[in-house]
Amino acid sequence: MTNRLSCPVGSHSLDLRGSDARGLRRLRQWLSAVLADLGERHVTEVMQVADELASNAYEHGDGPQMVRLHHCVVDGRTTIEVEDSNLETVTVGQSRFGEAAHRGRGLVLVQNIARAWGVRRRAGTGRKTVWAVLACQAEPRADGQVGAMAVS
Questions:
Q1: Consecutive H or E run containing 69
Q2: Are the C-beta atoms of residues 60 and 52 closer than 8 Å to each other?
Q3: 101 near 95, Cβ under 8 Å?
Q4: Could you say which of 1.10.3720.10, 3.30.565.10, 3.60.20.10, 3.40.50.300 is the CATH number of the domain covering 9-151?
Q5: What confidence tens digit (pLDDT) does each residue in 18-57 have?
Q6: For the segment 118-147, what is each residue's pLDDT rounded down to a tens digit?
């Protein structure tokens, strides 16, 4: 499979429709399995971003509907997408519970980890997709071989 940039990708999806916040555990387990051949640092940062995007879907709506992961083997670019049914505007650094709640910093984390991120509304579906792209580079594995990926 190739994307519009003619980059071979590994694409995976996880259906979380109807799940409650325990779906976050399922998401982490799925990412661990899908990213098993990648470097620990890469897996950790992809998990942080995916966890934050999915948590927002649980907190501000009915939870994530679908999670998609695309990994380009040429340049190491990894894209995580979380689709949900909440069409509210996404706001960075603010919580609907106010500053005293010590919340609203998750998208700041995403912004700091990701090369790019954004929101895509899906016309006529009542859904949106929040996505983030993480940059990767080769990282030596424990066995001394190079080939696993790490977020830069």
A1: strand 64-72
A2: no
A3: yes
A4: 3.30.565.10
A5: 888 889 999 999 999 988 877 788 889 999 999 999 988 8
A6: 999 888 888 899 999 998 654 544 555 544
